Amino acid sequence: ETGVTQTPRHLVMGMTNKKSLKCEQHLGHNAMYWYKQSAKKPLELMFVYNFKEQTENNSVPSRFSPECPNSSHLFLHLHTLQPEDSALYLCASSQGRGDSYEQYFGPGTRLTVT
Amino acid sequence: GQNIDQPTEMTATEGAIVQINCTYQTSGFNGLFWYQQHAGEAPTFLSYNVLDGLEEKGRFSSFLSRSKGYSYLLLKELQMKDSASYLCAVTDSNYQLIWGAGTKLIIKP
Description:
- The complex is a heterodimer of chains A (114) and B (109).
- With 114 residues, chain A is an all-beta fold.
- Chain A contains no helices and eleven strands.
- Helix content of chain B is 0%, strand content 57%.
- Chain B is globular, with a radius of gyration of 13 Å.
């Protein structure tokens, strides 16, 4: 248990569905992240929030829409996804957005797009 | 472009020592992390190096050479529970974390 929770743990959705992933951190951290992890590929950083403000959006398609209502919660809204979006989506948090801050990861949501 | 290279897979024997290498080419350098990820679980932090040299933490040690763009993770007295993927990540000049694809370590009895 790392202090970062994610729900749901598994999600199967069709290409026309709309769903949301939820992340919550209980560590008092100020920065939160969404990553995509595909088999045998490096972690892909999708979005970064620092003090609730989005600081990075790494050319992510608009079918992924993040929301950060406060420093403890992060959402990823999904709509009209493609089969290639099937992957493990990891949420992480860190004390700050700096060079030495380790990131704490949630268990991830295994997403399958049919 | 920015690149992190690690072997895809390694095999070692229980009780032995294994060294997992990581080489990087990034725009600037502000530190290097090693994470462990068991199958189906979240990555967990192992070590952080920002200065050259060896950092020891129990059975695990991490080494950094900034001039060579090189790091390694050394695991001693291997246990079956060490079977996992080991991820190398570098913070670049923009404080963005660049990740390697990970090394899957298989421990055999």
